[in-house]
Amino acid sequence: MAGETVITVVGNLTADPELRYTQNGLPVANFTIASTPRTFDRQANEWKDGDALFLRASVWREFAEHVAGSLTKGMRVIASGRLRQRSYQDKEGNNRTAIELEVDEIGPSLRYATAQVTRAASGGAGSNFGGGAPRQQVAEEPWATPGSAGADAWSAPGAYGDDTPF
């Protein structure tokens, strides 16, 4: 949509993502990303932390379940999404404004860690976004070489030739 503020934030999760379900059964995960800038102080010859930005974030639907099942407190993440501003009244009747990140993409940062990625079952025509019957589990990877029955030609040392496995 035109005019939206899209940003990318790198930081650490302050807690495990909190997975909830709306009254209609729609999953939503909420979490906070703490992003702290670091600068090098040449006079003191050391790194110094700046003021941390604590940004509330949310993801919806099957994406929320993936985030809640994959990310945990303290993980360094890279999140990209759209800033949303909402106004409300607190319990004392004061007007407040909150700025939150509606996440489009998120994943672990690999700067100081490694990750093992597992592809989720396809969210295509059989996905459960609008209700209906739950999706069946995918028995075989859709991009696997015919006849490989789940063997991963990329991961086995020495199991590759001049041809790509697809």
Can you walk me through this structure?
- The longest helix has 10 residues, at 61-70.
- The strands form two sheets. A five-stranded mixed beta barrel has the order 1-3-6-8-7.
- The chain is built from one helix and eight strands.
- It is globular and about 55 Å long.
- A hairpin with a 4-residue loop joins strand 4 and strand 5.
- By secondary structure, it is mainly beta.
Question: Notable features of this structure?
Answer:
166 residues; mainly beta; five-stranded mixed β-barrel; two-stranded antiparallel ribbon; 1 helix
Task: Give the helices and strands, then pairings.
Blueprint: E1 6-13, E2 18-21, E3 27-35, E4 38-41, E5 46-49, E6 53-60, H1 61-70, E7 76-89, E8 95-108
Parallel strand pairs: 6-8
Antiparallel strand pairs: 1-3, 1-7, 2-3, 3-6, 4-5, 7-8
